[in-house]
Structure formats: C-alpha cells, structure tokens
Amino acid sequence: AFPSPSAFVEHAHVDVAPSAKAEGEGKASSAGPATLLDARDYTGAITLVEFNRKLFFDAKHASGWQARTGGAAGFDWVEGKQQQLTDEEHREDEQERLWMAYAAFHLGDFKKALATYQSMIDTGSNDQMIHVYMGCCLLGLGWHAEAEERALQGSACPLQNRLLFHLAHRLNDESKLMGHHQKLADSTLDQLSLASIHYLRNHFQEATDIYKRLLLENRDYTALNVYVALCYYKLDYYDVSLEILAAYLQSYPDSAVALNLKACNQFRLYDGKAAEAELAPLTKEAPSIEKIDSRLVRHNIVVFQNGERALQVLPPLVDVVPEARLNLVIYHMHHGEVQEAFELMKDVEPTSPQEYILKGVTNLAIGQQMESREHLKVAQQYFQLLGSSASECDTIPGRQCMASCFFILRQFDDVLIYLSSIEAYFPSDATFQYNYAIARAAAGKYVEAEQALLALASGTEAELVSRDYIFQMWLARCLVMNGKARQAWEIYLKMEGTQESFAMLQLLANDCYRAGSFLYSAKAFETLERLDPNPEYWEGKRGACVGAFQQIIALKERKDVLREVLSVLKSSRNPQAVYLSGVMTRWGDVHGCVL
C-alpha cells in the first residue's frame, strides 16, 4: 500500500567538508574546534566555541584597573563595556564564529548558521565568502530565490558556482544550469556536485559512473559506497545495492544512512517486517515512533508498517522528506479521501515517475468524483507523458500508465495490448486482475472477462468484490452477453432494495434487450416502470415482451415462458398492454399453451 520508502540523502555537494571520510573516522585527540569537526562532533564543536567565547567576553567586559599605555606610569579604571576588541582579537573571534556556523550548518541547523553569519556582517566583517556561506544556508532552508540573490553578492569561486549550479536546478532554470555546468572543474568537489545533480534529475546511471570513478581515485572516501548503493537502489538493483552496503556496514555498523538504505532494499525485496528489523539499532531506544530522532526513519517506519499512524507522522515531513508527500497522497487515496490527495498534489510540478503517476491518479480520481472532463483530460496527459517517455516506455509503471491513458480514451483494445504485456508480473494482484477483466469486457471479450471476474469472486478478495456494485454490474453484463441472463438476474435479486439496484436494473433491461434475452429484459423494464412511471420504460417493456413472443413462435424459447410474458404485460395499465395480451393469449390457446 505504501510503495515508496525513502532512501533520501540530501545530494547537494556545495559546501567544503572537513574530509570526505565516513562516520566514525578520526576521533578527537585534543579539544580544538578543528579536531572536533574532523571527528564530525559538530555539537561538541559548537559547545566548545560558545564556551570559549563566553569566557573571553566575560573577561574582556569585566571592569578593573588597567596599566596606562604609552609608557606612562600608573593605572586607569576601565569600565568593561567600553573595551574594544583589538584587530587580532576581532580576527580570532571571527574565526571562532566561522567554526560555529560551519558546525551548525553540518548539524542541519541552518537558521543558527545563517544568524551567525549575519552577526559577522553586522559587526563589520568584509569577508565576501560569508555571502556564499549564507547562500548555502538558505539553500538548506529551501529559500532558493533568496539563496541565489545572496550567493551572487559573494566572491566568484568554485563553491559559489556549485551553489548556483544547484539553485539553477531547484529553480528549474535550464539555461543557468548549463552555464554553471560548463564552469565545473575536474576537482573532487565539483564532480561530487555534478553527480548529485544527475541523481536529483533521476540520471542515476550517470551519477553512479561519477561516484565509481571518484572511488577509484580516492580509495579512502569509503562513504561514496553509500552513494553508489543509493544509485543502484534507485535503478532497482536491490541485491547489488545490498552487496555494496554490506562492506561499508562492516566498518561502520551504526551508520544511520546506510542502515536506512539497507532497510529500503529489504522492503523492496521482501516486506515491511524485514525492513523494520534493519532499523532496530536506530529505534530501540525510542518509546514510540514520534520519539525517534531521525525524521527519515520515522517516515520509513510508517511505510514499513503499511501506513500506521501516517496522519500523525507524515504531514510535518511533507517538505522535509521527498517521499512523505507522495506517501501521504497514497494514504488518502487508499482511504477514499480523494480531495485531500488532490490538494497535496495540486501545486506539484512532477519531475519523477512517481510524481507523474500520482498527478495522473489524483486528477483521474477527482475527475471521476466531480464528473470533470477537464481533470480526466489532465490525467490522461500525465499518464501519456510518462508512459511514452524513452526512459519509462518499457518499464512496468510506464506500461501501466499507457494502459490508464487508453482506458480514459476508451480505446480498450490498446489497453489490452499494454496490460497483456505485463500480466505475468501480477499473477495474484487482485487490482490488476480486476482492471484487466473490465478492459476485456469493455473490449467485447465477454467470455474471458467472465472467467476472470468469477475467479476474483471466488478468490481472496471475494468478500470485498461482493460489496462492489461496479464489479457486480460488470459481471452481470458479461453473464448476459454470454447467454446467462438468469444468473445475471440472480445477482440483481441479491442487490434488490439497495441504493445501487436501480442502476443494475437499467443495465439488465438494456443489455438483455441487446443480447436477445427478452424475458429478463421485460422483467427488468417492468420493475423499472413500477419504480418510475417513465414512458420509456413501458416502450422497453413492450419491445421486450414482443421479442420474447417472437422467440416462442420461432421455437427459440419454451412455450411456458409465455405465461411469464403475459404476467409482465398485465401489470401495466397501458391500453396497448391489453391488446398485446389478447394477441398472445389467442396464439397460446391455438398452440396448446397452459396459460
């Protein structure tokens, strides 16, 4: 029900990292901020810098006697607040604040980092790189236009180009994207940035090629194995992804990113229970899902548990974890909350196959609900865009999209072409078999459709389909067209008195007439006439009764059927009924019918 766990890693290689080492490498051997940062102890670095700055300013701002300058003898009383920082002290404090902002950025506390950089500008710093750093923070906050504006105020450098490269992608500016692409060098950080853009644009093979090349050149950058594994996961090579991760997890068994990716692979290969077990090291200390520190893990636990507590966990993650919005849409769709699902996707400009599919599905659902041809047209276009694309046309989702496109266009022979090509992949999928059966019926292949629908009615979904009146109507139509009108009439008798029984009567009245099952058509029109004295129902009943009479005369129907036909006619007050009854009665008397 929830097909999209998130193996999300923020691929935005724009900042300069202390190293490209994996988690756990390089423990602190001294208490300096740089040492703590090399050990990835960002919280420790922030704490140390804040502590040192407090000690320094407490001492600096303390009042007391101070020796006179210029060789003069004696001391002067100095108020602490009046002491200005020397140039050297100002440079040292600026360096401390740079460390603090850097650590906050890598902790994901972009607002703290941004505020720290702003305070440096407010106190007179003329370092133009601060504007670039602030642009990185704004990118992290999702404020892309502001990030671009700030970055352009900074110094031209490789970091600025990488930042603007990513912002051009986020702002969908292809012209700028290509311009910054051309400025990328062959350096490790520039190539990492290029690989991340390939990944974000769903060019996973190109990203994989770059990561593999960088690994060959930098054997100690073992964390790149996780990116390679992530790309293989996106390419649906789950076994390969697990194999690459296994070597990395031997060295760093507590890596949250790697464990999460392993869980996603297990979910795709097996089930949610197997995936959830992989996350146990990250969740065992949390008393409930809401208390799990990692937003990514909270999201995936919901997915692995088939949507349990989705409404509590997913909404706050919609703009944080890329798949959260999509999974919340799926949750609403599965619970019949079409409007809520549509609102979530309404303003999304799709870039991934999943987004195109959900845009199509939500527009289709709202179009059916509101009987809006405009929404149905939009849905058809989204399905066609994805299904006919070069990258998706030969995939299972791509062919499902084309089948959906032709379903909306009511070109059912084309629907069958696409569904038959992927039937082998859904041998026990009730939803697929349902749609395939209906497509067959709509294409006039009633024998095959009847067999498929009866198989569903006796399978694991029997109870569910027995309550689905659309299913019952399609089954009734197939039975009628296959000369089994009596069985179709029995379906109606089980539904009699329900809200949907009137629609079933209309279907039986018309389909039985078309198929030449005039007796049951007459019965259906008789009931419709009794419920709604519409002249059209009398005309239908009259034609069906005459048709049944003709079949009796031609020996295509039993003579005792005439008694039922007369009973149907006598229930009507129309003068023509009396005339027709008389004709039929006289014929019956002559031919020895027991009336």
Describe the structure.
The model is unreliable at 8-30 (pLDDT under 50). The protein has helices at residues 33-38, 42-60, 87-107, 110-122, 129-141, 144-151, 158-170, 174-182, 188-200, 204-217, 224-234, 238-251, 256-269, 272-278, 280-283, 295-304, 310-313, 322-334, 338-345, 353-370, 373-387, 396-408, 412-422, 430-442, 446-457, 462-466, 469-481, 485-495, 501-515, 518-531, 535-553, 561-570, 575-590, and strands at residues 64-67, 75-78. The protein contains 33 helices and 2 strands. The longest helix is centred in the first third of the chain and has 21 residues, at 87-107. It has 595 residues and is mostly helical. It starts with 32 loop residues before the first helix and ends in a 5-residue tail after the last helix. The protein has a two-stranded antiparallel sheet. Helices cover 67% and strands 1% of the residues. 39% of the residues are buried.
Query: Which class best fits the helix and strand makeup?
Result: mainly alpha
- Unreliable runs, pLDDT <50, ≥5 residues? 8-30
The radius of gyration is 36 Å
Mean pLDDT over the full residue set: 87
**Sheet with the most strands, sense and barrel status:** 2 strands, antiparallel
Form type: elongated
Number of strands: 2
| Separate helix tally | 33
Strand order in the largest sheet = 1-2
| Residues in β-strands, percent | under 5%
Q: What proportion of the residues is helical, as a percent range?
A: 55-70%
Distance N to C terminus: 59 Å
